[in-house]
Amino acid sequence: MNRPVSAIVAALLVCLSFGALLPVFAEGQGPNRTHTRSQAPDPSCAQNLPIGDFTLCGEVYNDISTGTNVTVEYSPTPNNAIIAWATWCFTSACDTSISDITATIGDNVNATESCFVASPHSPFITDGNGGGQGSGDFQQHYVWYCPSIPAGVTSFTVTPNNSSLSFLQLNISEWKAGSLAPSCSPVSACFENVDNFAEAGNPTGGTTATITTSGPTVHANDLLFAVTEVPCCSFTASPGPGYTGITVAPSVTPGMVSEAEAATAAGTQTATTTWSGGNAAWFGVIVPVVGAAQVTVSAQNVQLLITGTNETSPNAVPIQDAGFGSSPQNCTFSQSSNPNGSCYNPLEIALDFNIPQIAYGSSATVTQPNLGGSGLDSVLFDTNSSDALEGEGTYSLSMGCDTNGNISSFILTVTMDDGSAFKFTATNNPPCTFSQQQSIVGTFNASEDAGDFAVAYYPAISGSYQGSFQSSDGSNGGTATINNIQTNSDFSVSASASIPQDSLCREQTITQWSTTDPLISKNDLLAYAVGDAIVLPMADSESGANDITWLTASDIDLTTGDPVSWPSQLYFSAYNYIGVCANTTAWDALFTRIDRSPEKPPRIIRWPQRPLIPHRWRRDFILKRQDAWKEKQEMSRIWQFVRISPY
Q1: Does pTM top 0.70 for this prediction?
Q2: In whole angstroms, what separates CA 146 from the centre of its chain?
Q3: Fewest 10 Å CB contacts: which of 38, 83, 144, 452?
Q4: 283 close to 200: Cβ distance less than 8 angstroms
């Protein structure tokens, strides 16, 4: 923008020695200039110009002498980010400032576009030549950022609350989705709080503009956006070292430059521009915009339980008993889509994920962990499906996070050892950071079934728990303590236990047990966690005994079917595998965490009345094991001890 002769006399004296002023456009008119220097084809990013981790897709600029607003015609790709810079003089002479001037930015879709947020210190007021009221060079500036522009936008308009302003300019730049901050809630999520302005502050200025942030930035990979302008003459400006030009020397304002650089470290940031033609006063702003590369979902080790609901054709034999007691009548509730139909044990699949770090706006393929390096698969089934599972289970998971950090895609395919497969597809968008408060829900399909599902998340257990067992022969030894349960990244688990005599059976004399006892490794056993279950084989060979007991824990009270508040409470059972108590069980008992205060019970989505086989029947399934079974099959039977399917 070039000012009239009366605007800044001191600067003009310098300019006149080098060339004539460019024409001033008539009211409401001016160039509408667009750059689309395409490099590589990309339908979502026309210009496709990389600037560090960021990608510039295009830009447009307009400058009008007077008017109630300033508009540019530009059609960005939906969901891309937009940075907007607008500036104006308060009067036609630009020598005076006016207080309380504000502005809004909108587009052809929304008169005030809600996605735009102004930088923390917008609007800025600069005084290029340093003069006072009546002799200064006053300019007001706004910088806005929109993380995701809506569809259908073909123009942008900035409207100040004063219709008598002069030399209104608007510069729009479009940035590829995923390269800049996905949200401005709060403002610090998209802007550093050190945006700043600068000016020559004297009539002679110089040939270089330098602007520095008002303090150090916090993030290491911000996009540093800056604009400078020499407001008179035909001087031609250029970006400074390290910066890439966005809009450079447009024909009506050759002294204007918008530029950007990808920061490489946190700290005080500086932008410069230069121009040829002579010394002149100048002004400008620098605004660090937070990069999306700063926002990632950390790697997570996740234990999940998938529960089916509203099944169209449950692939199973229905239960004709309520599951507790001997009443012969049909269930009054149904797992199937027919509320008056028969009752089925729900489709349930427990599994573990090692989810890698995922950047906002990207996706990842999740690999299936190998439990403790043992070769055991991290999938356990308690399913109403007639398909068989003898210990082998595999899955594939593709998961994406959108630019707001929410799940954009979740497609899980779980395959049983007979080749039958269940495909689960999420239909909601909870945060990519799994929590007990927000569950994934969706639909599933299988070869002979379909329905809905919900995913419950279980934080890894870490701590000590106290409770008491009652053995199947009626003995009760008193309070037992399961000490220092630790779940590792490969979902192997370590723990020890102090279990009083007579707790596991009347003949029990060993009281100290451990998952690391040599008997455990000698028998190729493994303590592990999958979904909402923990399996803890324990022994104590130092006493000269040859006893092994299998402790199992879950979040279900197996006498009632009701959930308990994992991780502050666990329901423990014991199956005595080898030794004086062999082939006996210890009844379920609620254990409470003792190394910190009880936690609020989690919100876990389950089938509300989960039909279970009566507790006293479960040991019959375990006793069917044959000594020739391999370890995986044994683990599967122990899992059935935790929660069993009748099929």
Answers
A1: no
A2: 19
A3: 38
A4: yes
d(CA 613, CA 10): 93
Helix residue ranges per DSSP H, 79-121: none
Cβ–Cβ < 8 Å for 147, 184:
yes
Lookup: tokens for 488 = 């590792």
Token pair belonging to 136 = 């200064």
Using only C-alpha atoms, the chain has a radius of gyration, in whole angstroms, of: 34
Place of tokens 């082939």: 583
User: Distance between the two ends of the chain, CA-based, in angstroms?
Assistant: 80
Torsion sign, CA atoms 112, 115, 116, 117: positive
Tokens linked to 9:
């006399």
**Cβ atoms of 431 and 405 closer than 8 Å:** yes
Q: What DSSP assignment string belongs to 470-501? A: EETTS----EEEEEEEEE-TTSBEEEEEE--T
Quote the CA–CA distance of 184 and 187 in Å, as a whole number: 5
265-304 as b/e: b if 16+ CB within 10 A? eeeebbbbbbbebbbbbbbbbbbbbbbbbbbebeebbbbb
Is there a contact between 196 and 213 (Cβ–Cβ < 8 Å)? yes
**pLDDT tens string 244-301:** 999 999 998 999 999 999 999 989 999 999 999 999 999 999 999 999 755 677 788 8
Using CA atoms, how far apart are residues 141 and 285, in angstroms rounded to an integer? 8
pLDDT digits (tens, 9 = 90+) for 185-200: 889 889 999 999 999 9
d(CA 285, CA 258): 10
In the chain the domains, ranked by start, together with CATH numbers, are 9-294 (no CATH), 296-458 (no CATH), 462-642 (2.40.128.120)
Q: Which helix (H) or strand (E) holds 521?
A: helix 518-522
Under a CB-based contact definition with an 8 Å cutoff, are residues 57 and 80 in contact?
A: yes
- Determine the pLDDT at residue 381: 55
CA 150/CA 577 separation, integer angstroms: 63
Q: Which residues pair with 225 in a beta bridge?
A: 260, 287
Strand, helix or coil at 158?
A: strand
Cis omega (within 30 of 0) for bond into 186: yes
pLDDT digits (tens, 9 = 90+) for 461-498: 999 999 988 777 777 778 999 999 999 988 999 999 99
Task: Report the candidate in 47, 105, 41, 50 with the shortest Cα–Cα distance to residue 76.
Answer: 47
pLDDT in tens, 334-365: 444 444 555 555 677 888 888 888 877 678 88
- The DSSP annotation for 424-436 comes to EEE-S--BSS--S
* Number of residues that make up the chain: 647
What is the arithmetic mean of pLDDT over 510-515?
Answer: 92
Half-sphere exposure at residue 73, Cβ-oriented, CA atoms within 13 angstroms: 4
State the chain's mean pLDDT as an integer: 79
Compute the Cα dihedral for 36, 40, 45, 51 and give only its sign: negative
- Identify the pLDDT of residue 315: 58
Q: Quote the distance between the C-alpha of residue 574 and its chain's center.
A: 39
Tell me if 128 sits within 8 A of 139, measured CB to CB.
Answer: yes
From the list 167, 188, 561, 199, the residue with the least C-alpha distance to 346 is 561
